[in-house]
From TrEMBL:
PANTHER family: OBG GTPASE FAMILY (PTHR23305), OBG-TYPE G DOMAIN-CONTAINING PROTEIN (PTHR23305:SF18)
A GO term from the CC aspect: cytoplasm
Keyword ATP-binding in annotation: yes
A single MF term (Gene Ontology): ATP hydrolysis activity
Name of the molecule in the record: Ribosome-binding ATPase YchF
Span of domain YchF C-terminal: 12-93
Entry keyword annotation includes ATP-binding: yes
UniProt cross-references to InterPro entries, sorted A to Z: Beta-grasp_dom_sf (IPR012675), TGS-like (IPR012676), YchF_C (IPR013029)
Protein keywords: ATP-binding, Nucleotide-binding
């Protein structure tokens, strides 16, 4: 029920994984990769280069992030890319 209300309010989540922390980041539907990077930290938005994206279904099907990358499921997107619900993202940015 909570997820339905979340979606009805116009929100989606993107995911960051790796290291010590895996996290879901709530954002408004229609947000670009550049804007999504800014929800984590303004430095990511300022120095945005590309977003490495793996669809959640591809991640699960492959059995993990490393396997999804090996299977060619990761793609590089520009700052204009519109984020999709449950995209798994690694932001490339300069400091």
């Amino acid at each position: 029920m909570l997820l339905r209300a979340f979606a009805a309010a116009g929100y989606i989540c993107f995911l960051t994984v790796g290291g010590k922390e895996n996290r879901a980041w709530p954002i408004r539907k229609g947000i670009t990769a550049w804007e999504a990077g800014g929800t984590i930290h303004t430095d990511i938005q300022k120095g945005f280069i590309r977003a490495e994206i793996i669809g959640f279904a591809d991640l699960v099907e492959a059995g993990g992030e490393t396997q999804a990358k090996r299977a060619g499921k990761q793609r590089l997107e520009t700052k204009q890319y519109v984020m999709q619900d449950y995209d798994v993202v690694n932001f490339r940015f300069s400091k």
